[in-house]
Amino acid sequence: MKKSFIFTCLFFILLSSLSFAQDKKVAVVTFYVNKKVDVAEFGAAAYAAENKLLADSSFNLAPLLKNFHTQFSESYSKAFPFQLLPEDEVVNNSAYKAFIPVGVASDGLLDVKKFTIVIPGYKVLIEKLMGHQNEKEMLKIFNQADGVMDVSIYFKLVKIGFGGMGVVKAEAIANIALFNKSGDLVFSVDESAKSSGVSPLVAGIPVMTAEKILPMCESAMTELMSDLQKDMPKMVKKADKKL
């Protein structure tokens, strides 16, 4: 009888703690992909090819972002020990719509329209600028939430092999960062995966045509989404304790 009573008490304590965690709410406040493929590994000589690819309208990462957003909303979010505020509630908030993020511009090096594709309604928030100032402002706007979350994707080219005769693969990186009510970082997931396909190097510079690079980005994203499906639960396991 005593054992049964103890078990019943433990069960209700566990149920209560799980319910408390699920009562916590988080607002996703940015969701975008960086269109500029990082070629820093190959030096300044590769920047011309990088900019040419950026200007090529056939290099379209929008479908990859849309697929990732769907997977995030319908699958990854189920691993979180908290609820996400409804997306409409975030993007239609009048203060959010009026907010001008720190560190972005309408032209120049941080021109968000030129360098990013955003899920409709979201703003581009650059997480690491000025002590997470953007996120602190978001916490004021969404004061009904227990935290705010940034989600972004970017791509880079990485060299495989030695010397000028090697090849490159595309690497997809997803950054998912969560901040609590105090503006402290709860976790920052930087999951990455490489493409199965490769592109050649010519005189040490990657061949960066849309026909070569886009399928590699698609391949890397497929691998990344598969990895996140497996890894997300353990990555966020203790998040509720820090919210």
- Contiguous uncertain segments of 5+ residues: 1-21
Q: Cα-atom Rg, whole angstroms?
A: 21 Å
Percent range for β-strand residues: 15-25%
Question: Main sheet?
Answer: 8 strands, mixed
- The chain-level structural class is alpha+beta
- Outline, from the CA principal axes? globular
Please give the share of residues in helix: 25-40%
The span between the termini is 38 Å
Strand tally:
8
Multimer state? single chain
Topology as H/E string?
A: HEHHEHHHEHEEEEEHH
Number of helices: 9
**Count of individual domains:** 1
Mean pLDDT over the full residue set:
85
Quick summary:
With 243 residues, the chain is an alpha+beta fold.
Description of the molecule:
By secondary structure, the chain is an alpha+beta fold. The protein has one domain. The protein has helices at 2-23, 47-55, 62-74, 87-91, 94-98, 112-115, 133-141, 210-235, 239-242; strands at residues 25-34, 83-84, 116-118, 147-160, 167-180, 185-194, 199-202, 205-206. Strands 1, 2, 3, 4, 5, 6, 7 and 8 form an 8-stranded mixed beta sheet that branches. A hairpin with a 4-residue loop joins strand 5 and strand 6 (185-194). The chain is globular and about 55 Å long.
